[in-house]
Write a structure and sequence with these properties.
The protein is built from eleven helices and 52 strands. It is mostly beta strands and 931 residues long.
Length: 931
């Protein structure tokens, strides 16, 4: 029996019931006896359908073409509201989301997105219309080459010849994953290097796992006849450069995690951290006893585990950051695949086009985040939060750098994801958003980098991080810290950087406690245009304003910038922090300022006032926008600096500065201040602070039959010290999670009560979700959890009684479908039309054509028995939540033909809690001739 169309209409009805209100879907009132209730007939958007019923019911979207496996999460949304992250099917086109307990909205609001990039037909069409309105005919500006060539070029190959090979170890079990993870890696090491050598470990991101000819799939192990895609071999060009400079390098495989991470709340971050640390543990063993190592490791110099650099691409970047966190503050043992002690020191990380679904970066391990300007996968460039999200969390001594690479896409940093270089099928990820010409990022534009150019530039900046963080060579710092310097070996790549941390001090931050004059404190993420920094429709236009899509899309508290809009020169904007700022010892004031893409010539005069009221004019800075189009995330802050020498001459008290003044000197314009710091050269040694670590868990409970019970969301606070975190708690009736800030201390409890109300009515499981984000003095590992109240009441039984089962033609046949008790969720029922065993059967010309079209999408001609209708001849119905019965009718038409009695035979089908069909009784209706 085909139940697909029956459930589709039923879910459409649930959408229709929600159309009048943005709140939870509400059932229609119980029909009075004799009054019919039919399932809604609104069509789901193109590509959508549903399958199953009850707790097995799923919302399914099928793309007309394969959706490339990428690192951005595929999300089902109703408008801005996240419905969930669906399970991908092996065909690469079908995505399924369980609907148990999911509140649906209007059918027209259904969307499929990945990091804000629309995937469904409606979203793609809307995006195309938006682009036409946003992109100017003049095209994007071209970023000028930085004037200064850095004195040290880390992209130049070293003196060592290299050797390479692979190892494969027994697979490992990771918590929450059904299939074991492979322990496979490729090693590239210097030949003839003496002594112990620093270790660089690479981890690739999420990509298809297997291929056969031109077909790829996301499965593990690979199906018969398919080969594994060797994503771990995609960084050989980076490994060879570092090995020539004396580093031992290893790139590890994560295909098993990629094939399974759709089911993890953190999209695989903890699993990837475990995988990294499992490999590092083996390297620590091999350093202690080289005779136990694989042959390729024995050929390499001994690895120095006190000098480790992690390099992660996309989701591998988030895994690398989590591994850095877990190495300092271990995660709960039941969530971790590695249970040994930490025998290594991670000196820094390089994160290439990374995801940061948790938005909780490790603050005390230095990092370089490469942001590809033409990223077509993680299009919102959310990795910027590895810089912005570390401010104020810890001591602020670790350098966190963002490297914006104009013309680079997401995939080409990995040669196994690059057409013409990869063993498996590969493609340009920028074309994920459509093949319409883009003046900045289409492959045929002058601003777009070739694969080789992009890989060369990537290798250069990975080597720069290694040289700064691991080798301690401060001469490469200007390539990473916002200074106007470039590396000659990066070739034609136009690269800009900005940073926080290191030797910076004294922060001017746009926060709610500050006093603002002239400009306005704007919300980075808010749905109200007068409040938000950018038009809320520009969801992916700025890396700084990227949404926390898994938790609170569209609105998030306490993320601000200072917005400046002027129509004449000379209108000042002032920012006064709640406490005086100390710039003692600083050589310059460094500001991160956003101006609109493709704009040029914005000039701002910068001045400071101390607590005594003395003012010093520091000088003027100029800011140009990045090249950008509607498909790029180009509202990105340029770092500019102005010397503090004038303040010293004026006798300003730099230890107690009250106000920062910014005065535009251009005729009109718009700018946003992200932050400002005192700056001086140097990269101080980083000593990680003692931070508390918070991991939120999940609790499932039975709802009970009566009364209310209060449960605590399981939260573990480990590590050491104390800090503050912000909780985001789903509350009934609220469009956004309710946020509050709490103090945490290692070894203590966090009070997050959730009240569960018991009843004796059958219903869906109820989820109360809780998310956590650090504020200061703490790190967060598992960021998402909550309480699920499981339904523990039996499903009502269903009966059918006749209301009018013997009628004259022109009158409706009517049956009442009744429940033994009202339920909190819709109860689906089907009436299957069966062939009659004796006499004439009602045919398609005996019922109204409009009813036939509505109920079965069929027409009267050619005449045929109703039992011969398509899709199993199912007449679908639903008993709404809070209702006890509905009347189901089959209307008939009167004609002038003289004919005998005609019959209709039906069978009731219901569905158990698992969605399996349950066969019910048969019953019959008869229609007599009106003449």
């Amino acid at each position: 029996m085909n139940r697909v169309s029956r459930v589709m209409a039923a879910v459409t009805a649930a959408f229709a019931l929600a159309m009048a209100s943005p709140g939870p879907a509400q059932a229609a009132p119980e029909p009075e006896p004799g009054r019919s209730s039919a399932a809604g007939t609104s069509a789901l958007p193109e590509g959508w359908r549903t399958t199953g019923s009850g707790k097995s019911q799923e919302l399914v979207w099928r793309s007309p073409r394969k959706v490339p496996v990428g690192d951005a999460q595929v999300e089902f949304r109703s408008g801005e509201r996240l419905l969930g992250t669906p399970r991908p099917a092996a065909d690469g086109r079908t995505f399924r989301l369980p609907l148990d307990g999911v509140r649906l909205g209007r059918p027209g609001d259904l969307r499929v997105e990945a990091a804000g990039r629309p995937l469904d037909a409606a979203g793609v069409n809307a995006a195309v219309r938006e682009r036409r309105g946003l992109d100017s005919s003049s095209g994007p500006s071209r970023l000028p080459r930085a004037a200064t060539v850095n004195q040290v070029d880390p992209g130049v190959a070293g003196s060592f010849r290299t050797t390479s090979g692979e190892y494969s170890l027994p697979s490992v079990r990771l918590p929450g994953y059904d299939t074991e993870a492979e322990m496979k890696a490729v090693v590239v090491a210097p030949e003839g290097a003496t002594g112990s050598r620093p270790l660089a470990l690479f981890l690739h991101g999420r990509h298809a796992t297997c291929f056969k000819d031109s077909d790829t799939t996301l499965e593990w192990p690979c199906p018969a006849g398919h080969e594994p895609i060797p994503s771990y071999r995609g960084y050989l060009h980076d490994q060879q450069l570092l090995a020539s400079q004396g580093y031992v390098t290893v790139s590890v495989s994560a295909n098993s995690v990629n094939a399974q991470d759709w089911q993890a709340a953190d999209a695989g971050a903890q699993a990837r951290s475990s995988l990294i640390r499992l490999h590092l543990a083996h390297w620590a063993d091999w350093a202690a006893d080289p005779s136990t190592a694989p042959e390729v490791v024995r050929r390499a110099p001994r690895a120095d585990l006190d000098r480790v650099l992690l390099v992660g691409h996309s989701r591998g970047g988030e895994g690398a950051d989590r591994a850095a966190m877990d190495s300092l503050t271990p995660p709960p043992a039941d969530q971790d695949g590695y249970h040994g002690r930490t025998r290594w020191t991670i000196r820094g990380t390089v994160l290439i086009g990374p995801t940061i679904f948790g938005q909780n970066p490790q603050p005390d391990v230095p990092s370089v985040t490469i942001l590809p300007g033409c990223d077509g996968d993680v299009i919102d460039l959310q990795g910027e939060y590895y810089v912005d999200g570390t401010r104020g969390v810890s001591r602020g001594k670790a350098l966190h750098s963002a490297v914006y690479m104009t013309g680079a896409n997401h995939n080409y940093f990995n040669s196994e994801w690059t057409p013409g270089q990869a063993a498996a099928p590969a493609e340009d990820d920028f074309l994920y958003g459509g093949d319409a010409h883009d003046p900045l990022c289409s492959p045929d534009t002058a601003t777009r980098l070739t694969a080789e150019q992009q890989q060369t530039a990537g290798s250069t900046y990975i080597a720069a991080a290694a040289q700064l963080f691991v080798a301690g060579d401060d001469r490469v710092r200007p390539l990473l810290d916002g200074s106007p310097a470039r590396a000659a070996s990066a070739g034609p790549a136009r690269v800009l950087t900005h940073a926080v941390g290191a030797a910076r001090s004294g922060a001017f931050l746009p926060v709610s406690s500050a006093t603002v004059g002239g400009g306005r404190l704007c919300a980075q993420v808010d749905p109200v245009p007068d409040v938000s920094c950018l038009d809320p429709d520009l969801k992916t236009a700025s890396p700084h304003f990227a949404q926390w899509r898994r938790v609170t899309p569209g609105k998030e508290p306490d993320r601000y910038a200072l917005a400046m809009n002027w129509s004449r020169p000379g209108a000042p904007t002032e920012l006064s922090p709640a406490r005086p700022v100390s710039l003692s010892g600083a050589k310059a004031l460094s500001l991160r300022v956003i101006v609109p893409p493709n704009s040029t010539g914005t000039e701002l005069d910068v001045a400071l006032t101390d607590v005594s009221g003395k003012r010093a004019d520091l000088g003027r800075v100029g800011v140009d926008g990045l090249p950008g189009t509607s498909r790029t995330s180009s509202y990105w802050a340029r770092e500019v600096r102005v010397p503090l020498s004038a303040a010293t001459r004026e006798g300003l008290d730099l230890g107690r500065v009250r106000t920062l003044h910014l005065t535009p000197r251009t005729e009109s314009g718009t700018a946003w201040l992200v932050d400002a710091y005192g700056w001086r050269p140097g990269t101080p040694a980083v000593e990680p602070a003692e931070l508390a670590r918070v991991d939120v868990g999940h609790l499932s409970v039975k709802e009970g039959d009566s009364g209310t019970r209060t449960y605590q969301v399981p939260v573990r606070v480990s590590g050491s010290g104390s800090g503050e975190v912000r909780l985001f708690v789903d509350e009934p009736g609220s469009d956004f999670p309710v946020a509050r800030t709490v103090r945490v201390r290692a070894g203590t409890q966090v009070d997050i009560p959730v009240t569960v109300e018991g009843n004796t009515r059958y219903g869906a499981d109820a989820d109360r979700r809780v998310a956590v984000k650090t504020v200061r003095g703490a790190v967060v590992g598992s960021f998402l959890g909550g309480v699920t109240a499981q339904n523990d009441d039996p499903q009502p039984t269903v009966t059918v009684t006749p209301v009018a089962d013997q009628v004259i033609e022109g009158q409706p046949l009517v049956w009442r479908i009744s429940l033994s008790a009202a339920a909190d969720v819709v109860q689906w029922t089907d009436l299957q039309l069966l062939a009659v065993s004796d006499g004439a059967e009602l045919s398609t010309v005996d019922v109204p054509a409009t009813w036939l079209a509505s109920a079965f999408k069929a027409s009267p001609d050619p005449e045929r028995p109703l039992s011969a209708l398509p899709d199993g001849a199912l007449l679908m119905s639903e008993v709404p939540a809070d209702s006890l019965s509905i009347d189901v009718s089959v209307p008939t038409v009167a004609d002038e033909l003289s004919e005998g009695t005609e019959s209709l035979r039906l069978r009731l089908w219901t569905y158990d809690p698992a969605g399996a069909p349950v066969e019910g009784p048969e019953f019959t209706g008869t229609v007599r001739d009106a003449s």
